[in-house]
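HUMAN: Mind making up another protein with tokenized structure?

ASSISTANT:
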Amino acid sequence: MSRLVVVSNRVAVPDPTGKGAAGGLAVALREAFEAYQGIWFGWSGKVAAQPSTQPKIVNRERVQYALMDLTSLDRQEYYNGFANRALWPIMHYRIGLSEFSRADYAGYLRVNRSFANALAQMVQPDDLVWVHDYHLIPLAAELRALGITNRIGYFHHIPWPAPEVLGTLPGSRELLRAITDYNLIGVQTERDADNLRRCLVQELGAVHRKGDVVELGNHQTRVKGFPIGIDVRGFEQAALRSSSHRLVRQTTAGLGSRRLIIGVDRLDYSKGIPERMESFERFLVGNPDQRGQVTYLQITPTSRSEVPEYATLSREVNETLGRINGSLGEPGWVPIHYVNSTYPRSVLAGLHRLSRVGLVTPMRDGMNLVAKEYVAAQNPDDPGVLVLSKFAGAAEQLTDALLVNPNDKFEVAEAIRDALYMGRDERIARWTRMMGTIRQTDVSWWASTFLKDLAGGKNAGRPRIQVGV
């Protein structure tokens, strides 16, 4: 039987008790490995004086974790540099924030080549190789250069921009050539798939054949949307159990009769947090009767603090927060509570369930799983309302959310008002349809569908991966 070889920028190694990272990619791949067995390869997260030439191996049940260390220069050029200061802004349509450095680009290629050299020694002829995200776009090309002929798939977790946006990045043509060495390229939405196919056609002269096939020379690759899902049942159960958690009880008591609006995002300019705060300010200004009646809780763990743009964003958020709370707050009531802590899923699920409005308004997002988690956490008899940016990938699936343009503060303010005043029957009807969608396309569906397509249908009889069993 084929092994599954997963490659990602960071590797989540569970501790010996079987516990470990339970969110995002870790959940999906844990379940995939239940079906396939195999290797998870990538950066250990550690910085060493010398780069790894051979991975450190950690065995956990059916999975062999292969960990590579980077040097401080590798980390700066590959990760902080090209990946997060050049690629990330471009992929999120923030051309003005993209900073290209040839040294960083060379470091990005060097680390991908180093990973390929180490991985090629581990890959067996029948293995399926599944590479994840923008840090590793050139990896298949490097593996092909070493003679690896296995089926290799790539999943792009963030947006793929239009050709005229990607084309502003130096080196973009080389990245496009490299990405065609994958047999299957998965993206979050059909819009992303269309953008990538148009990039290949316009920039490289590829031919878009019928359906999702793109042909360049004598080589074909498939570009297809696979919207990533969540562990729906796990999040439902966490929400049901959450009422006993101390923080959830304290929040409930502190709210009293006030209704809660919640936003959960890591600190990133793609999330539109200052714009969201100003939209809430516009709501309060336009609806003065709601002052003291609602509380907006924004949970924002910090990330990439060593990147200058994120330090600037942090200052902007804090200045916006202080201005709004200072001008609109009253004794005994603070309009916006802003928290930088990281909370476990049990707490987040409980806070989502408490909230009448889920405010998910990124400026641009590949999918945004918080939107799906908010839906999964709701009380079926009295659900809250999701206000969702139309530029989040989730908007293609969650059409019963209140879809908004996050750049229009008046529109978002009106959506907040509509959500707070929406009747129970309409809330239940919208929630029921969205819940049906996220159940059908949960994280298990995502992983098993991608791997079936990557294998070319040869595992069509494999049972569907089950999450949470």
In short: The first strand starts at residue 4 and ends at 10. Confidence is low (pLDDT under 50) at residues 457-469. The chain is about 45% helix and 20% strand. The CA atoms of residues 247 and 347 lie 7 Å apart.
